[in-house]
Amino acid sequence: MSQDNQFTIRAIEINNSLPESWNDFIQNCQPQFQTEQIWINSWLAFLKQEWEPLILEVKCRDEVAGYFPLMFLKQKRKGFIPFIRVRFLAYNKQDFCFVPAKSQYLEDVVREAINWLKTKRKWNLLILDDLHEKYPGNAIIREEIKSHFNSMIHQKGKYYFIDLHREWSDIERQISRKSVRRKCNALENKARNLEVLFNPDWPATKMAELISTMHTCRQEMLGRRPSYASEKQKLFLHTILAHNMTNKKLFTSWLLIDNEIAAYKIGFVENATYYAWNTAIDSRFLDLSVGKYLTFRLLKHLHREGVYEYNFMRGEGGEKDKWTPTTRVNNRYIVNNSYWWYARLIQIFDRSGHVQ
Fold first, then answer.
1. What are the tens digits of pLDDT across the range 221-271?
2. Can you give the pLDDT at residue 352?
3. Would you state the pLDDT for residue 354?
4. Are 286 and 340 in the same domain?
5. Residue 256 carries which DSSP code?
6. What is the b/e burial string over 277-292, where b = at least 16 CB atoms within 10 angstroms of the residue's CB?
7. Total of domains in the chain
């Protein structure tokens, strides 16, 4: 860590496009596919809605040391009380959040950014999350928040993952026999014409349309808001698929029954790790456990191909614990601003029950 007086920090205008040098600062971020310039620029172009970017640029003398990527949302609580939230930039389309910075300056960039939030910005609530336990910036962020703010809520979630770098028999023993393996065997016995396609040579346009249709139908059936129904959402999806097809990170899997697509899984492979990003099933095959069958076949395929890990990414639902007991910690830090008089006033009202 360098001396404090060497550093300057400022909020930069990005006009919905990250600095050209952005990708030079993500080399220590693993995985990188959701942190790349094209991913976040696509989010800015198609999905940011009411969020406004807040990119803090930290320099060491005249050299850019890194960026602290944030965004803020201005709301009205109870319809009239102003309230400002701050989150990591594009957090709702990122499973792993990072601070893009040169490794020798990471601690300095975090320190300068947290101090800037304390002294320069009017906001009510700060949430920094999806920080996995092995990321060096996680511990730095935690300690800097502790040193600058009176109180911090630290919540711990889970990233489920399967270690594929071992014998297949060891992997299979950890997968629930009742919830997964028996149902997969039952589908093979019941369905005569099963076919699984791995990375078919389909254009991104075709895949985006198939994903949008199936995912939207499934989410609406579950009473959830679909992620890829609107035109802007579809443009985001198409951009991400096309880019990662070109750089060879995209890995798609499709289950066909009687030549009809019954389920799909979309993921990315980076550094011998498969990251499971998006999946859906056709409601016509709902009773056949087609999603579990496709995941089981995909695991066997990835194991044969020498992939070391299957990562379920963030979230603890979807019966992930039926596939593996192994997890890593997903850290979330929640801070109420105690340095802005207005934020303190809102906190008092919150405690008294006047503001919901």
1. 888 888 999 999 999 999 999 999 999 999 999 999 999 999 999 999 999
2. 55
3. 44
4. no
5. E
6. bbbbbbeebeebbbbb
7. 2
Residue 120: per-residue pLDDT: 82
Domain co-membership, 261 together with 334:
no
Exposure of 59 by Cβ count < 10 A (0-12 exposed, 13-18 middle, 19+ buried)? middle
- Statement: residue 337 has pLDDT above 80: yes
C-alpha distances (whole Å) from 17 to each of 38, 44, 45 are 9, 7, 8
Share of the chain above pLDDT 90, in %: 78
What are the tokens at 349?
A: 């009202």
Reported as type and span, the H/E element at residue 12 is strand 7-12
pLDDT at 356 over 80: no
User: By three-state DSSP, how is residue 160 classified?
Assistant: strand
Q: Tell whether 144 and 18 lie within a shared domain.
A: yes
**Do 8 and 152 have their domain in common?**
yes
3-class state of residue 200 by DSSP: coil
Which tens digits make up the pLDDT trace of 164-178? 999 999 999 999 878
Q: Is residue 335 part of a domain?
A: yes
Regarding whether 143 and 54 lie in a shared domain, the answer is: yes
Range of the domain at 337: 4-157+330-352
* DSSP string covering 93-142: G-SS----B-GGGHHHHHHHHHHHHHHT---SEEEEEEEETT-HHHHHHH
pTM above 0.85, yes or no: yes
8 A C-beta contact, residue 264 and residue 280: yes
- Name which of 162, 111, 103, 164 is nearest 136 in CA terms: 103
**Could you tell me if 246 and 125 lie in one domain?**
no
Given a contact cutoff of 8 angstroms between Cβ atoms, the answer to whether 67 and 55 are in contact is: yes
Chain mean pLDDT for the chain: 92
> Considering the domain boundaries, does residue 217 fall inside one?
yes
CATH at residue 121: 3.40.630.30
| Per-state percent for the chain, helix, strand, coil, to nearest 5 | 40, 30, 30
Helix (H) or strand (E) holding 300: helix 290-304
Same domain, 127 and 201: no
Report pLDDT digits (tens) over 32-72: 999 999 999 999 999 999 999 999 999 999 999 999 999 99
66 token code pair: 């890194």
